[in-house]
Amino acid sequence: MKQTIYYQFLEKKKQGKKSFAVLIDPDKVNTGNILALVELAITAKVDYFFVGGSLVISSHLDECIQQIKASCTIPVILFPGSPSQVSPFADALLYLSLISGRNPELLIGQHVISAPFVRKSGLEIMPTGYMVIDGGAPTTVSYISNASPIPADKNEIAMCTAMAGEMLGMKLIYMDAGSGAKTPITDAMIAKVSECIEIPLIVGGGITTPEKAYLNCKAGADIIVVGNAIEKDPNLITEMAAAIHSIAVNA
Ligand code: 1GP
User: Fold this and answer.
1) What are the angstrom distances between the C-alpha of 173 and each of 30, 71, 102, 154?
2) Is 251 domain-assigned?
């Protein structure tokens, strides 16, 4: 199995380097604005593009990824809301299991159904323990997943869930308050989780300022994901990237 991008994650974590992933929802981009976004991302030295969403209505996922790949070398990682969001044009796939929920379909059911198709894609597969944290209001992911998020102040539950995910063999933990969350995940919860796992920690959902991104990294996040805030103001890419990359190596 390919592990090129995952090794990059591990190497960066070892060096204390933090990464910035821009989340692109294929429903919200078109040929015109995607190229402008890629240009900004190249200049700001964005580390990764995550592509996907809890609910992708349009059918131009492949086209969207091909456009990104044709214009830059930034790796494209699928962040799928369902098995239909698998594109062989991407570089890697976050193979998500919703370990914070108790919906068997999202823990293993959909994986079984789509396994041959996913393997055939040739994508680098990254087994990811996906944890949805309450972001202050129902988000698309909390509704669609039909599973309760972890309460925002239950740091111990988050810690134990991440620990269990790592011991089950997950290669990444992704803590997500949901797209457009009113309240992003607290630094205290990020710190608690990051202290108890060795695998890279991805954090996203409701991060709207470079300050918050910086503090999340200081608390232990390895990769920060931002979608909504950049959709509203693409120029935020530059400041976000600078804040995340400003963390001194091994500080
Ligand atoms: C959502 O973590 C991502 O799954 C990003 O959230 O769109 O709120 O930045 P935002």
Assistant:
1) 30, 29, 17, 17
2) no
